[in-house]
Amino acid sequence: xxxxxxxxxxxxxxxxxxxxxxxxxxxxxxxxxxxxxxxxxxxxxxxxxxxxxxxxxxxxxxxxxxxxxxxxxxxxxxxxxxxxxxxxxxxxxxxxxxxxxxxxxxxxxxxx
Length: 112
Hints:
single chain; alpha+beta; 3 helices; globular
């Protein structure tokens, strides 16, 4: 990267979309996957997408953007351009958020 350029990662929670390939709905932006995961209403069809934005000219010009949709609690191996692999630290961030989930015992669901 040259001076004045930066790469920014954000997690978008998409809502009001037909499916994971539809981007006609709205999205809320989050700084971490854990935050996005807490706000995502999976049962209502919402899903999470990692967005990589490459900014040039002191952060004033968006040069390019890549996307990766989280499916089955994991990221794909490559960005949507199929050229660049997604950094291991981003895969680890997703895995860590799901490892922290507490799953209640079955008897809690069947209390009489």
